[in-house]
Amino acid sequence: LSNKLDRAIKTLKGQGSISEINVAATIKEIRRALVDADVNYKVAKEVTDKIKDAAMGRDVLTAVSPGQLMVKIVYDELTELMGGEKKDIVIKGDPAVILLSGLQGSGKTTFAGKLASYVKRQGRNTLLVACDVYRPAAIDQLKVLGEQIGVEVYSEVENKNPVEISRNAIDYARKNGKKVVIIDTAGRLAVDEQMMREIEAVKSAINPSETLFVVDSMTGQDAVNTAKTFNDRLNFDGVVLTKLDGDSRGGAALSIRAVVEKPIKFISTGEKMDALDLFYPDRMAQRILGMGDVISLVERAQQQFDEDEAKRIEKKIRKNQFDFNDFLGQLEQIKKMGNIKDLMGMIPGMSKAMKDVEIDDDAFKPVEAIIRSMTKQERANPDLLNASRKRRLAKGSGTELQQVNDLMKQFDQMRQMMRKMNKLSQTKGGLAQMQ
Ligand code: GDP
Ligand code: MG
Questions:
Q1: DSSP character for 101?
Q2: 252 in the same domain as 367
Q3: Ligand 1 atom 28: the closest Cα is on which residue?
Q4: Can you give the residue ranges of the SRP54-type proteins GTP-binding domain (predicted)?
Q5: CB of 109 closer than 6 A to ligand 1?
Q6: CA of 271 to the centre of ligand 1 (A)
Q7: What's the CA-to-centroid distance between 186 and ligand 2, angstroms?
Q8: How many domains is the chain partitioned into structurally?
Q9: What is the distance between the alpha carbons of residues 220 and 252, in angstroms, rounded to a whole number?
């Protein structure tokens, strides 16, 4: 008997699932939180649709509340949407060439220095190339960084042709035993046709093993549009998200990844040369979750769901439609709260009646097993339960026929009591109206 009960409880545990009402309310809140975290609206909608699919019908272990489970689902989906695993850059060729692109001020030059330092620490002989031919100060900026990290910087002060400079730099690298060449380019303040043509020309002339698009995460929605334009022209290999040390909310990571379908490979979190990190989708998911405060939103939505459920039950009682499904639903609720008296408190009018009754939680285990053994129709329509069906229930749930009969009696009494309370409140209401 005990074995059978255990099995019944196990299936029971597996059967609780996140319901539709629950999800709908939560999804709306999550979408708002994502938009607050700078995720593009269209992307937020796609994400939440996926979350909804993932959440519907997922099993709820009694140890985890549906709210916590939702958070986990959201976290998993965000991680997955940002690429799941971290992706490294491809360093291939002799020399391997890495080309940087992006708008002015996005952090290209700073990142060039960081990347050079990173590659150098891997034991590779590295060359930085200054290809920003419009601002002489840009060459100096790169030289200062190069000196700081001990990496040579190639530049041609008089030459204004970035294609030539990069070709010459690669020749120079070959002759001087440099294994990795990092090319820093010029950007404009906004997307600009000449800049695009120039970087396209550099890319096709030198055929880099890695073309990276550098973008300022603080620019929010604009970051997505810029990424799309650059990707349409350059078909880059990866994204570098900079300035994540500020109050950027990180939502750009999700939007960019979703819109251009290219992995984010690095994040930059400061002006210092060591403030470079590989991009970990799970950590970014945490950041977005934390920033949008999705966790508390989910919890609030969960609470709302509980209230809605209580109202729904109350309505069913009023219409004399309380059935075994509702009864089981109520049992689920107690288990979540861990206390049977609390459940009774949730059934309107029951809290007073149950005040002095001592009930231990195990008392309900056979009850649950019996209800689980009922068919859908039987649960919705308890009057169907004749003698032979009751015998079947006892067998299926590993209980005695007497226990099934007791449950039926109790359930009947409960319904009668509810009916009486209904009549009472209706008469009262009626009298009150007549006065
Ligand atoms: P470029 O025009 O794309 O080459 O951009 P720069 O590398 O010159 O950077 C523009 C400004 O942003 C500079 O003042 C940098 O110090 C700053 N910057 C770059 N990356 C970061 C970062 O990750 N965090 C912060 N806080 N500032 C950064
Ligand atoms: Mg620069």
A1: E
A2: no
A3: 271
A4: 263-276
A5: yes
A6: 6
A7: 6
A8: 3
A9: 6
Distances 166 to 59, 109, 111, 335 between C-alpha atoms, Å: 57, 16, 18, 68
Residue 217 belongs to a domain with what CATH number?
3.40.50.300
Same-domain pairing of 312 and 389: no
CA of 185 to the centre of ligand 1 (A): 14
- Asked if the ipTM is above 0.95, the reply is yes
Report how far apart, in Å, the C-alpha atoms of 314 and of each of 181, 344, 377, 406 are. 71, 13, 21, 24
Ligand nearest to the backbone CA of 242: 1
Tracing tokens 């001592």 back to the chain, one arrives at 358
350 lies in which domain range?
A: 336-434
Residue ranges of E strands in 116-177: 126-131, 152-154
Same domain, 341 and 211: no
104 CA distance to ligand 2 middle (Å): 6
Q: Which sign does the torsion angle of CA 416, 417, 418, 420 carry?
A: positive
Residue 108 annotated as binding site: yes
237 is in an annotated binding site: no
pLDDT at site 301:
53
Judge contact between 186 and 138, C-beta under 8 A.
Answer: yes
Does the annotation flag 388 for ligand binding? Answer: no
**Percent of the chain clearing pLDDT 90 (strictly above):** 36
Q: pTM here?
A: 0.64
Is 104 a pocket residue for ligand 1 (Cβ < 6 Å)? yes
Residue 422: predicted pLDDT: 67
